[in-house]
């Protein structure tokens, strides 16, 4: 989730790269300015989603070499079914994913695109299908950290380039630099740090595969981050159709079930 928030610089840089269109459908508009985004997908019988394929648990290959799967992949596939078309996936690197969208290599991005004002101005964004917060993770035995103000004078394990590093230091914590979540957990379990500040989804995903981790959430931020599908500007008809599909998938319980499968609780709203 961190790089979703801080991927804007890379996104803007990548957007300047000219790419030849080699996939997807022709929408969002024809030469007359008519929005063809939905009719093009319907005509092709498929909607092409861009995704990394290396971003577990959202988009990854099971065992490293199995079929593409993950929360985003399954939600996108369910959306396509509601539209009456097949879901196809184009795997690409995050840094070039928006350039590919603008070059019409795909119809949409399904890769935990964080909603923010810059992206809302530049792209069509669907109704959010993932909602998360920042959390403080501590050992089950820790009782003296119950809020972010309690981090003052404590040591947390953080990646120095993440927004969680900023939140930890703004809260008064000293930071032990790590390369990622796995290293942070190792330091916490060895009592070399007092806590970790990270995204709630990262912790929930870890708990699903490590139910006896001995870790717990000590505090949660009041602010939430939301993730959505991204479309080219002008793809209004396709975005609205996807929003209707997401509303139906929420009402029939599909989004809740997929959330439970990957995170152990409903993170879709």
UniProtKB/TrEMBL annotation:
One of its GO terms (cellular component) is cell envelope. Pfam families: SBP_bac_3. SMART domains: PBPb (SM00062). This is Solute-binding protein family 3/N-terminal domain-containing protein. Residues 46-266 form the Solute-binding protein family 3/N-terminal domain. It comes from the Bacteria. It is found in: Cell envelope. Belongs to the bacterial solute-binding protein 3 family. Keywords: Signal. It comes from Arthrobacter alpinus. CDD domains: PBP2_Ngo0372_TcyA. Residues 1-20 form the signal peptide. PANTHER family: ABC TRANSPORTER EXTRACELLULAR-BINDING PROTEIN YCKB-RELATED (PTHR35936:SF34), MEMBRANE-BOUND LYTIC MUREIN TRANSGLYCOSYLASE F (PTHR35936).
């Amino acid at each position: 989730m961190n790089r979703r928030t801080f991927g804007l610089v890379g996104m803007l840089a990548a957007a300047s790269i000219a790419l030849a269109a080699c996939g997807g459908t022709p929408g969002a508009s024809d030469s007359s300015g008519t929005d063809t985004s939905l009719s093009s997908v319907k005509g092709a019988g498929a909607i092409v989603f861009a995704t990394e394929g290396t971003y577990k648990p959202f988009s990854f290959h099971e065992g490293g070499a199995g079929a593409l799967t993950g929360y985003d992949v399954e939600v996108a596939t369910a959306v396509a079914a509601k539209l009456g078309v097949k879901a196809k996936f184009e795997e690409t690197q995050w840094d070039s994913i928006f350039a590919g969208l603008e070059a019409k290599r795909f119809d949409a991005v399904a890769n935990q695109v964080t909603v923010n004002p810059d992206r809302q101005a530049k792209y069509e964004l669907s109704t959010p299908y993932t909602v998360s917060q920042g959390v403080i993770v501590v050992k089950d035995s820790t009782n003296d950290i119950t809020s972010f103000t309690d981090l003052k004078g404590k040591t947390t394990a953080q990646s120095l380039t993440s927004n969680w590093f900023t939140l930890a230091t703004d809260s008064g914590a000293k930071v032990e630099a790590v390369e990622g979540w796995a290293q942070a957990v190792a330091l916490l379990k060895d009592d070399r740090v007092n806590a970790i500040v990270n995204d709630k989804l990262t912790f929930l995903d870890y708990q699903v595969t490590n139910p006896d981790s001995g870790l717990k959430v000590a505090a949660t931020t009041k602010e939430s981050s939301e993730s959505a599908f991204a479309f080219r500007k002008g793809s209004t008809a396709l975005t609205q159709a996807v929003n209707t599909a997401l509303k139906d998938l929420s009402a029939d319980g599909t989004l809740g079930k997929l959330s439970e499968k990957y995170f152990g609780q409903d993170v879709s709203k």
